[in-house]
Design brief:
By secondary structure, the chain is an alpha+beta fold. The chain has helices at residues 23-38, 121-133, 145-185, and strands spanning 43-45, 55-58, 66-76, 80-85, 95-100, 102-108, 114-120. A five-stranded antiparallel β-sheet has the order 1-2-3-6-7. A hairpin with a 5-residue loop joins strand 6 (102-108) and strand 7 (114-120). The protein binds zinc ion.
Length: 186
């Protein structure tokens, strides 16, 4: 399981409702927790691992693993608050954006049990950030246009470099394979 990066189409698509909490969905949730914790993240949404399902996970400083399936934001406070945000799909970039201070959300947990939660602080922010992912929205969309454009270009260059490296690697292994085939021929 890999976390897709800015530039990937998946990050801009709308995710679909989870119709049944199967063993596959539970496995997805547990794999997502492993990947997120390994990456030192506090939240991860299914589209970030290439799965267009309305599901995300959060684990903030309190260490509690929270799973939100088919979440619905019921209310957000009028009061807003600025705070620095990052995203595992926009690695190495942070920016201060303003969001509602409090949020009320309803969702199903990993066992399909409905719950409602009022959250603020880091948890409230993570919930709003991850919920946006299910609608193809990224936190840079709330940032200053210059910053957004620069970040998009930075990731385009990163992706190009990655592809270039991959092509070199491919060409190299093709040469080695040809060499070996030659040797065997002799
Ligand atoms: Zn994110």
């Amino acid at each position: 399981m890999e976390i897709v990066q800015l530039g990937s189409e998946t990050l801009r698509q709308k995710s679909e409702t989870v119709t049944e909490i199967t063993e596959g969905v539970k496995k997805l949730v547990s794999d997502m927790f492993s990947v997120m914790i390994a990456a030192n993240g506090v939240g991860l949404a299914a589209p970030q691992v290439g799965v267009l399902k309305r599901l995300f996970i959060v684990r903030v400083d309190d260490g509690i693993r929270r799973t939100f399936i088919n979440p619905q934001i019921l209310e957000t406070s009028e009061e807003t608050e600025p705070s620095e945000e990052g995203c595992l799909s926009i690695r190495g970039v942070w920016y201060t954006i303003t969001r509602p201070k409090r949020v009320k959300i309803q969702a199903l947990d990993e066992n399909g049990k409905p719950f409602t939660l009022d959250a603020e602080g880091p948890l409230g922010r993570a919930i709003q950030h991850e919920n946006d992912h299910l609608n193809g929205i990224l936190y840079i969309d709330y940032a200053d246009a210059d910053f957004r454009q620069k970040t998009i270009e930075q990731f385009q260059r990163r992706a190009a470099r990655r592809e270039e490296k991959l092509a070199i690697k491919k060409a190299k292994s093709a040469r080695i394979a040809a060499k070996n085939a030659n040797k065997e021929g002799r």
